[in-house]
Amino acid sequence: MKDLFGKAIYDYFSGNYTENLKTETDISEQDELPLSYLFRTYQQMPFLEKKALDMASGKILDVGCGAGSHSVYLQEKNMDVIAIDISPKAIEVCKLRGIKNAINQDIMQVKGKFDTILLLMNGAGICGRLRYLDIFLQKLKSLLNENGQILTDSSDIIYMFDQNEDGSYDIPLLHDYRGEVNYIIRYKNQEEAAFPWMYIDFNTLQNATIANGMTCELIFEGEHFDYLARITK
């Protein structure tokens, strides 16, 4: 892992910004991710993220925190938050931004109990493939206090495929589920090895949570197939 994501975040924070991250999947062309977006304030966040942060309470785990914008806001509100990310450089920036508890760690290695687990910016896709979702949900469930909650957002990417006159879609059989992609990051003439990612539609997520002894509530549905969900025991 070259940690290009973390290096880009560090460059932007330290004043060495020269270009944005470039992202690509096996179903979409190359696009740019503005580094400034990773440092957005609460006021600059989309409604979906604001809603999740407003609902967060108790001891909070911010999974895949990136540059730490969500944790920065919660800490400013005197909330008890731990920020984790697999990117060492991203965690370094989080610490430099003043986040008291920022840890370079994979969610599957986390121990302890939490009242709120945040999985934002399509955070539900961290498990990578639908076949791993049960294991992923069971891990999250084990980290929840009895009345705890998981707040996660994702998107149904069905809109990215061609629709036929009968309403069906032409979905290439690249993976087992339409929301599964291979994700590539490029930065400063370097390329990260492709890694699995997943965009999961709400019905699929809801069925999986029920199968794993939890409930899944649709909190907010956006105009672009995006949504915020609340999962509880």
Automatic annotation (TrEMBL):
Keywords from the UniProt entry: Methyltransferase, Transferase
Matching entries from InterPro entries are given as: Methyltranfer_dom, SAM-dependent_MTases_sf
Where is the Methyltransferase domain positioned along the sequence? 58-156
Biological process terms in GO annotation = methylation
One Pfam family it belongs to? Methyltransf_31
**Which molecular-function annotation in GO is an example for this chain?**
methyltransferase activity
Q: Which CDD domains match?
A: AdoMet_MTases
Q: What is this protein called?
A: SAM-dependent methyltransferase
Instruction: Please name the source species.
Output: Capnocytophaga catalasegens
Lineage of source species: Bacteria, Pseudomonadati, Bacteroidota, Flavobacteriia, Flavobacteriales
